[in-house]
């Protein structure tokens, strides 16, 4: 296994880029995280998974590194993505605003805390806007120092959920006013956020939206930490869930699956399990006579992410996604 010191200092970045159809291009972005300008492998860095979605025209690249190495790995991947992805020609059903749409930094090791993740997130934000002329950033989560606004709130403020956000009306937190070429990138830090998507067997997006509305944490009976979109996807409707970690004891009922738990800076966190999300979607869909087609994680749970990263780093496997073809999504 990776050394105890390295295990305790691991962080993850689930890098979201606005390209899901040209897989070779996305692999080049992933490789940029692993190799420096001279082609030398970066130490203490691995790419665990690449998720491509054709309909969404979006990919998620799971990068894990030591907290001391994550900035260079993520920044190099972002520079490559900005060179290859032009938002002026982008089309997809998933909302997005930037060539690099999202850069979240999550602590995995017990020696990494909020302050460490904020430092690295801000370093990436500054590095991106300094090295890619025209790139601009909004901050969220712990990195939004003054207000600590979560990603969903910041996206709403920025118009991310609109079909065609008005970039000219926006002010970046870091860098120049947003431009069409690169759009606007969200950079932040928080406890781990998992992505869980459930497909329902209907073409009626209105049915999906009613299910999404009932699942959101903001409504009575909703699931804590769960933010939801309903989107047309591969001949069905996908209930796409961002599963944020919540502080404190698990809120699940006595018959619910156990909520996975972890600790950051001595504070306990937990997140809704995928099995509970799928069961709730199935229940809500069934009430409208609609079945569930399937469920999938985009990447891993935080526990899986750390465990696989330890394995990859102990064996010196940077391109670990090639060993994970069995991982769906």
TrEMBL record:
Pfam families in alphabetical order: FTCD_N
Domain of life: Eukaryota
GO molecular function, one term: transferase activity
Residue ranges occupied by any Formiminotransferase N-terminal subdomain domain in the UniProt entry: 9-191
Name used for this protein in its record: Formiminotransferase cyclodeaminase N-terminal like 1
């Amino acid at each position: 296994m990776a050394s105890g010191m390295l295990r305790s200092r691991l962080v993850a970045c689930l890098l979201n880029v606005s390209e899901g159809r040209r897989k070779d291009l996305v692999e080049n972005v992933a490789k940029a995280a692993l190799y420096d300008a001279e082609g030398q492998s970066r130490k203490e860095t691995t790419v665990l998974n690449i998720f491509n979605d054709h309909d969404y025209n979006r990919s998620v690249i799971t990068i894990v590194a030591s907290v001391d190495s994550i900035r260079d790995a993520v920044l190099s991947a972002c520079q490559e993505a900005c060179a290859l992805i032009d938002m002026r020609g982008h089309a997809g059903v998933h909302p997005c605003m930037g060539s690099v749409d999202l850069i979240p930094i999550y602590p995995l090791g017990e020696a990494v805390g909020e302050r460490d993740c904020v430092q690295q997130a801000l370093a990436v934000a500054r590095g991106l806007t300094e090295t890619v002329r025209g790139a601009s950033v909004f901050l969220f989560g712990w990195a939004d120092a003054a207000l600590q606004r979560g990603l969903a709130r910041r996206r709403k403020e920025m118009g991310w959920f609109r079909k065609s956000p008005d970039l000219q009306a926006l002010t970046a937190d870091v860098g120049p006013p947003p431009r069409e070429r690169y759009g606007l990138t969200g950079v932040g830090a928080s406890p781990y956020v998992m992505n869980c998507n459930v497909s329902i067997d209907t073409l009626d997006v209105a049915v999906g939206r009613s299910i999404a509305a009932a699942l959101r944490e903001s409504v009575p009976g909703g699931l804590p930490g769960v933010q939801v979109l309903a989107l047309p996807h591969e001949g069905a409707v996908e209930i796409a869930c961002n599963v944020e970690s919540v502080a404190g004891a698990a809120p699940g009922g006595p018959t619910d699956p156990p909520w996975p738990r972890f600790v950051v800076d001595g504070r306990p966190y937990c997140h809704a399990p995928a099995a509970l999300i799928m069961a709730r979607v199935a229940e809500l869909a069934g009430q409208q006579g609609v079945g569930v087609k399937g469920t999938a994680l985009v990447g891993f749970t935080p526990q899986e992410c750390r465990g696989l990263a330890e394995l990859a780093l102990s064996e010196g496997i940077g391109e670990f996604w090639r060993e994970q073809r069995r991982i769906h999504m």
